[in-house]
Amino acid sequence: MGDTGDIFSACWVIVDTFDSRKDCAIYVRDGRVRGIAPLQDLTSRFPEARVHVGENVAILPGFVNAHHHCFGVNLVNQGISDDLLEPWILATAGAAAISSKTSTEYAALRLLKNGVTAVVDACTPGATAALAEVKIREKIDVYNRLGMSCAIAPGERWQNRLVHPAGQDTDFLASLPQDLREKLEHQHLSRVRMDPATYLGLVVRLAEENATTENADVWFGPVAPHWTGHELLRDIGFAVQHKGLRMQTHAAESLLQHLSAGRPEFQSPVAELAQAGLLNKKLSLAHMVWADDNDLQQVAEMGAHIVCNPSSNLRLRSGIARAPQMMRLGINLALGMDGTSLAGDEDMFAEMRLARNLYWSADPAERDLCAQDVFDMATMGGARQMGMDHNIGSLTEGKRADFMIVSLENLQGPWLSDRADPIELLVSSAKSSDILSVYTSGSLAVYHGKICNRDEQSVFRDIADNMQHAADQRLRAEDYAIVRSALLRWYDDWLTEHA
Length: 499
Ligand SMILES: [Zn+2]
Fold this sequence. Notes:
The protein has helices at 39-45, 85-92, 100-113, 129-145, 169-173, 178-189, 196-209, 230-243, 255-259, 269-275, 293-302, 310-315, 323-328, 348-358, 371-386, 409-412, 422-429, 456-469, 477-497, and strands at residues 6-16, 19-29, 32-37, 50-52, 57-61, 63-68, 116-123, 149-154, 216-218, 247-251, 283-287, 305-308, 333-335, 403-407, 435-440, 443-447, 450-451. By secondary structure, the chain is α/β, with parallel strands linked by helices.
């Protein structure tokens, strides 16, 4: 991009959810949006600029995927089927352990091709501070080189690695045959994890180092309160309050998590976070499917954010979040794909469509989420949660020129009414295959489905090579069936006993 800048015109410029401009254009220079006006106005104001006339297209701000995991090759492709969250987690430990850099690159390319220009990457840090530091730096580098903004949220399951209530892992293991006991022990219990004190120091240091970076951040990402423990949560709370850092955690995701809550050793995740001083504007909670009225009220009062992950919640049998109620309470909502989009294709249009159709309430006091609501979740909601809303999430003048050009050809069909609302049309009907190009910071990043500044084929080769040489740690189908039924039986017994 030279000094003279570029003008892009379109049938619609979607500046943000509430500002769609017909027959309009944007002027982009030095990576930022510098003007929004009809094409003729911009060409007369900036006669030197290169002009890209968009025939039958819309220009949209880049999407923010507010909660993601880089699983590498889709788990279904690795022989790990969708299931109830708890047994599924036990199965995912058998996924191929490939290089974090390769799986991040692969995830980043796929997201970018789907118009996602900012992401919150929830990851495990690795066994030592040195390894974690390399991993986090590599991730930031991968996203930033593609022009994407990112927040990296490393975290572990420090306790309850097999079953939710604290201190019950051994009890559950005892219910398994010897060979499976050893396998699960090896995969889940004996894996070396970074100790909490080292983790705290590392996240604080890397977060402070990135504090002045415009499009990269490092957050705390303890996997969930019940996997973290009171003491470490309290220490994180202390660091968050004194250093002004951000945190993302899974919370109230599954029914079994919910049923194991409300006990002295494990109260509701929201209560647990509040007690640790973590329930505040810097916190984002992923899922919250089983959050009750009291939880949501507290989240609203303290200004914490919620990321809804509709695809993941369906695929892992978690349920449907009460998003209409969250919205009525004024909670900032974002949208995440959790590395588990419905078709495993990271199509953010499909995710918005799903959110829009799932999130309605039979209670007339709560209005359904409309197309505008879910579009806002996928753009500004995520940007607000990342603390980057001054810079990304919309095409307001002065912000980063992260945008996509979407063809209206297929959406229009043989006839389209003048009354049709462009956001409604995009949320209802668009697919990522309608994306013609994606720009990050004003530079062409994706053109007709191909990444422009990275050799995609070499990433695919790396993935295939990594997969070929990764040790096969998966449970055999018959072993998984045994573990699964033992797990469900164990929960059933435990819950009956503690009813
Ligand atoms: Zn997740």
